[in-house]
Amino acid sequence: MQNGTTNGTLEYFDLKDMPHIIKALDRNQKLQPDILHLIGNTPLVKLNKIPKQEGLQCDMYAKCEYLNPGGSVKDRIAYRMVLDAEEKCILKPGKSVIIEPTSGNTGIGLALAAAVKGYRCIIVLPEKMSDEKVNTLIALGAEIIRTPTEAASHDPDSNIMVARRLVKEIPDAVMLDQYNNVCNPLAHYDGTAEEILWSLDDDVDMVVIGAGTCGTVSGIAHKIKERCPKCIIVGVDPFGSILAEPEEMNKSDVQMYEVEGIGYDFLPKVLDRKVIDRWVKTTDKDALNMSRRLIREEGLLCGGSSGAVMWAATQAAKSLKSGQKCVVILPDNIRNYMTKFISDQWMEARGFKPVIKHDKLPWWNVVLTKNMIQPITCISHEATTLEALEALKKSAAPVISIVDDEGAICGVFTADNARKRLANMAASTSEDLSQFIVKKYYTVDVTQAPALGLVSRMLDISPFVVIVESVYSTKKPIGVLTSEDLLQLVTEKSLNLSCS
């Protein structure tokens, strides 16, 4: 650790004393030796429609980090960490194994570098991360290990702890550790910030940046504060995360948020809160709807965290006047979320967007009631995998629910997921049932009077919908609906409604 300033109980790096790599843009260079040389020098683009619609007076610019070769701002730190580790002989070409815990984008950047340079690469990421990220990683040759989304950072099952364990078990394994590696903020201190200052002639009044590992916000903030002290640095943190301050801002009943790549339940060492002037907390609904606006109204094919940063910017930039300049960092691209917030059905299922209307379908707005649903078989979370398979076989349904000691649903067991684990992950039916539980599935609560139209929209993107009933704070499974069930149900409803 270099001498540095303190960040709460953490010691922060003194970026000025580090070796620097300033990459100048040579527009006359027509050819590049490999794709890694195209990382950085992303465009700064003026935003037009959204700032005007939000009544903002300042000029607002988007730093389009999603145009990096791997699709995100994390390409910068991945490449910088690899170069640094090679220079220090920590990484040895043809021998070392790169292992990294990530929400996906750093993993893609590392997998990209590993593919070009010939390293074996193992990426450990939580289950909530999109299938698109996983498939991109696999295409780049990386090996994937998934961990429970709900596992806290210090939990043995978290992606960080699993990665640390693998480093000890696998010969020649190296964890570059983006959370504690000074190359994370340095990549932005030397690169991203320099590019912003160059584009705006060292004259910028506000920069709005999402906080994940926090290298982006810390690195950019340090450089810009040195050259443009008047600039206000705004950090963006989702509800459910603890990065913002004062600490009171982090109080929330949000247990899990959908936006990927920002927020954490611990303070990474590369976070320096002292250079952040203001924090804005965001919700999934605001963030993801703003991402869709950036795509539709500004033509920027960005991801979900970009929407969080842009929404925060529309709040923070209200204090700026005409002629002042605000820069918004857009971290990643649309590729990672084609089956997520880009999908109307996905947004509707989570209440982030109103369900589409079908006035010509008489059953569409009919409220789902208990007498309409097929009962669901429930088994205890303490049951064995073989017992779950037997219960599934007897039920003749595509899914059974797993419940805790209070009868609350804690997951589902499906034949499809069991087959995938047995076939693709060399799992065994002797393993604990927890290894086979599916925790990502669609539910509707009958106590909230859901319409059949909502169930139909969910079935557009899922083979089944689990019906639950809230009893105080406990959600108890009471049934399941498939497309076949709903088809029979709505056919009967349509006939009954047309006859009445």
UniProtKB/TrEMBL annotation:
Taxonomy of the source species: Eukaryota, Metazoa, Ecdysozoa, Arthropoda, Hexapoda
PANTHER family xref list: CYSTATHIONINE BETA-SYNTHASE
EC class name: lyase
Protein name, as recorded: Cystathionine beta-synthase
GO terms for cellular component: cytoplasm
Alphabetic keyword roster: Amino-acid biosynthesis, CBS domain, Cysteine biosynthesis, Lyase, Pyridoxal phosphate
An annotated GO BP: cysteine biosynthetic process from serine
Gene Ontology molecular functions: cystathionine beta-synthase activity; pyridoxal phosphate binding
Organism: Parnassius apollo
Classification via InterPro entries: CBS_dom, Cys_Synth/Cystath_Beta-Synth, Cysta_beta_synth, P-phosphate_BS, TrpB-like_PALP
Every CBS domain range: 372-428
Cofactor(s) listed: pyridoxal 5'-phosphate
UniProt EC number: 4.2.1.22
Primary role: Hydro-lyase catalyzing the first step of the transsulfuration pathway, where the hydroxyl group of L-serine is displaced by L-homocysteine in a beta-replacement reaction to form L-cystathionine, the precursor of L-cysteine. This catabolic route allows the elimination of L-methionine and the toxic metabolite L-homocysteine. Also involved in the production of hydrogen sulfide, a gasotransmitter with signaling and cytoprotective effects on neurons.
